[in-house]
Amino acid sequence: PRFDIVVSAFTLFELPDRKSRLQAILALWRKTENYLVLVEQGTHAGFKIINEARDLILHLIESSSKREDDPQGYIFSPCPHEFKCPKISVDNGIPCNFQASYIPLSLKDARITRKERYSYVVFKKGKTHE
């Protein structure tokens, strides 16, 4: 079966090697009907994994656009382009990440707001701006 939205959050980093991650990403893409959302820690390692996924999916999209049998796709968010990520070429030590605040579910720390940094990419199947 295929699903309208497929999400992998903070799991690709747990896989033992690049080959395993790429196989998992490919399997997730094949299960995707509309949107594939990938989220990892907002660290250098998490950002690197998101870019591995980004490169793989963009390669698959480019390959499928040369054939008629597979749907096309594009980066839906956060990037407004499909070129190499400029954060990779800039050696300033800051990965592309975002921050979210939350209150943990633990009752003893109910009033303490925490912050988490994450890197992500969302792909959409179909033609650009469909």
UniProtKB/TrEMBL annotation:
<protein>
    <submittedName>
        <fullName>METTL17_0 protein</fullName>
    </submittedName>
</protein>
<dbReference type="InterPro" id="IPR015324">
    <property type="entry name" value="Ribosomal_Rsm22-like"/>
</dbReference>
<dbReference type="GO" id="GO:0003735">
    <property type="term" value="F:structural constituent of ribosome"/>
</dbReference>
<dbReference type="GO" id="GO:0008168">
    <property type="term" value="F:methyltransferase activity"/>
</dbReference>
<keyword id="KW-0408">Iron</keyword>
<comment type="function">
    <text>Mitochondrial ribosome (mitoribosome) assembly factor. Binds at the interface of the head and body domains of the mitochondrial small ribosomal subunit (mt-SSU), occluding the mRNA channel and preventing compaction of the head domain towards the body. Probable inactive methyltransferase: retains the characteristic folding and ability to bind S-adenosyl-L-methionine, but it probably lost its methyltransferase activity.</text>
</comment>
<keyword id="KW-0479">Metal-binding</keyword>
<dbReference type="GO" id="GO:0005763">
    <property type="term" value="C:mitochondrial small ribosomal subunit"/>
</dbReference>
<dbReference type="GO" id="GO:0006412">
    <property type="term" value="P:translation"/>
</dbReference>
<dbReference type="Pfam" id="PF09243">
    <property type="entry name" value="Rsm22"/>
</dbReference>
<keyword id="KW-0809">Transit peptide</keyword>
<keyword id="KW-0496">Mitochondrion</keyword>
<dbReference type="GO" id="GO:0051536">
    <property type="term" value="F:iron-sulfur cluster binding"/>
</dbReference>
<dbReference type="GO" id="GO:0046872">
    <property type="term" value="F:metal ion binding"/>
</dbReference>
<dbReference type="InterPro" id="IPR052571">
    <property type="entry name" value="Mt_RNA_Methyltransferase"/>
</dbReference>
<keyword id="KW-0411">Iron-sulfur</keyword>
